[in-house]
């Protein structure tokens, strides 16, 4: 039985294009695998702890091979509580609108909490990051109002999909589907752009369920 974690990065709820496309993805996944368990993590409703100085110190202590003191251990337990929900999933779906060329700050906050040594990666002194999430699958839905691949820089630049794709591959996920709905404000036929993205989402879900 697959556990699918849907990370919702838009605060717009029912008005969100990225979330709507994500729901179409989940619907097709359920058609292919009726017993899939879907865990929805709405980053705007989740109480994420701050990644403060104690947590940063705890991370650096592990990177350098040290041992946590009592204060660092308490901070680290807050991190591992958040991370365990993520690592327990078998597959991931990210619904991510573009904000100012990048990802929404709540998603960046979540990633900063998750990206910990011994949880998502180990650091090899010769080869660098070594991802620990082997054998997992992911899909990312990217929406934007103005940016569109191939347009001049005046329409924006993509630190959005490039960042999230890099992070997912860094933590060990190689089976990755990218679904785009871009742009949503400049297009003459928004519904057609959305319909194309919905179809792409359904195809991606069918492909990922097949392994």
How would you sum up this structure, described in words?
It is a single chain. This protein is an alpha/beta fold and 211 residues long. The protein has helices at 17-32, 53-63, 70-87, 105-114, 161-170, 190-209; strands at 3-8, 37-42, 91-97, 121-124, 128-131, 137-143, 175-181. The relative contact order is 0.18. It contains 6 helices and 7 strands.
Could you name the key traits of this structure?
211 residues, alpha/beta, Rossmann fold, 6 helices, 7 strands, 40% helix
Tell me the overall shape. Answer: globular
Largest sheet: 5 strands, parallel
Sketch the topology as an H/E string, one letter per element.
EHEHHEHEEEHEH
Computed over alpha carbons, the radius of gyration is: 18 Å
CATH architecture assignment: 3-Layer(aba) Sandwich
In total, the number of strands is: 7
Unreliable segments (pLDDT under 50, ≥5 consecutive)?
none
Domain tally: 1
Percentage of residues assigned to helices = 40-55%
Number of helices: 6
Strand content: 15-25%
- Average pLDDT reading: 96
| Level-1 CATH class name | Alpha Beta
Q: How far apart lie the N and C ends?
A: 13 Å
CATH fold-level label: Rossmann fold
Structural class: alpha/beta
The largest beta-sheet arranges its strands as 2-1-3-6-7
Give the CATH superfamily: Flavodoxin domain
Please provide a brief summary of the model.
The protein is an alpha/beta fold. The protein contains 6 helices and 7 strands, in the order βαβααβαβββαβα. α1 runs parallel beside α6 and α2 crosses α3.
């Amino acid at each position: 039985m697959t556990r699918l974690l849907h990370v919702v990065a838009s605060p717009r709820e029912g008005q969100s294009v990225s979330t709507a496309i994500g729901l179409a993805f989940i619907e097709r996944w359920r058609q292919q695998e009726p017993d899939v368990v879907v865990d929805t993590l709405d980053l705007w409703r989740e109480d994420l702890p701050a990644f403060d100085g104690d947590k940063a110190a705890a991370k650096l202590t592990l990177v350098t091979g040290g041992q946590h003191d009592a204060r660092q251990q308490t901070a680290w337990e807050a991190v591992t509580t958040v991370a365990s929900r993520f690592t327990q999933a078998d597959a991931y779906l990210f619904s991510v609108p573009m904000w100012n060329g990048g990802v929404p700050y709540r998603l960046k906050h979540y990633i900063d909490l998750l990206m910990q040594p011994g949880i998502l990666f180990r650091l090899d002194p010769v080869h660098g990051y070594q991802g620990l999430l082997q054998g997992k699958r992911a899909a990312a839905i990217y929406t934007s109002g103005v940016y569109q691949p191939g347009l001049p820089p005046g329409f924006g630049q993509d630190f959005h999909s490039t960042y999230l794709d890099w992070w997912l591959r860094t933590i060990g996920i190689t089976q990755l589907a990218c679904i785009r709905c871009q742009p949503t404000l400049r297009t003459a036929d928004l519904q057609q752009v959305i319909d194309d993205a919905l179809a792409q989402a359904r195809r991606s879900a069918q492909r990922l369920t097949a392994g």
